[in-house]
Amino acid sequence: MEYREEDFLQLSGIQHFAFCRRQWALIHIEQQWQENLRTIEGAILHERAHDKFFTEKRGEILVSRAMPIFSRRLGLSGECDVVELHSLPNGVSIFGRDGLYLPIPIEYKRGKPKENDADVLQLCAQAMCLEEMLLCNVDVGYLFYGRTNRRLEVQITDQLRNRVGEMTEEMHRYYKDRYTPKVKPTKACSSCSLKDVCIPKLSSIETARHYIQRRIKEGIE
Asked: Which of 30, 36, 207, 208 is 20 to 30 A from residue 152's alpha carbon, by CA?
């Protein structure tokens, strides 16, 4: 199956969906967003990475910033923070450049490596887009974390690719149905930029019957 361009979802939504399906729906379906310190710091870091007027060549490596990418199979579009194009005999042709190159996506994050795999799945989705666009295999990518100032190598495995494929199918179903799921609150909710909008406790809100009974009891007392 291939998606039409007008049905593409934002690739960046992968990390939101992996972290919390409700958060993803609030942002990408209900168009709600709130800034907090983490999102502002992340935006600053991405502004530095997304300097479209900055190009660089390091020996046999070309550096491309804010490269537009898409996948009709996944129904996603977005940008890679940085793509390193390595000059290699088994590479592919790049428009306007001599030689053959293999792309390696690099995603910039403000904090440190997470306990969940949201960042890894987003990077894998970028690699899958590059593979489809350039007709090549992308077996590795990197996550750069601002707090540690280091790159973390990520192997793009078939297992990751399958998970991304399953996740994007679910995202498209939710988006088509305009469905915002409820979730069970966790300790991660306290750091979510949408905690005041989402109000996690609403997921376990009391029934109308219990509300009426409580109000009657309060009136009696």
From this structure: 36
Residue 155: CATH number of its domain: 3.90.320.10
Q: What are the residues whose beta carbons fall under 8 Å from the beta carbon of 103, sequence distance 6 or more? A: 83, 84, 85, 86, 130, 134, 136, 138
In a domain, 217, yes or no: no
- Quick one: tokens of 1? 């199956």
In a domain? residue 199: no
> Number of folded domains in the chain?
1
Q: Is the pTM of this model over 0.85?
A: no
Backbone angles phi, psi at 33, to 5 degrees: -155, 140
Provide the 3-class DSSP secondary structure of residue 99: coil
What is the C-alpha separation between 190 and 193, in angstroms, rounded?
8
Rg for the chain (alpha carbons), in Å? Answer: 21
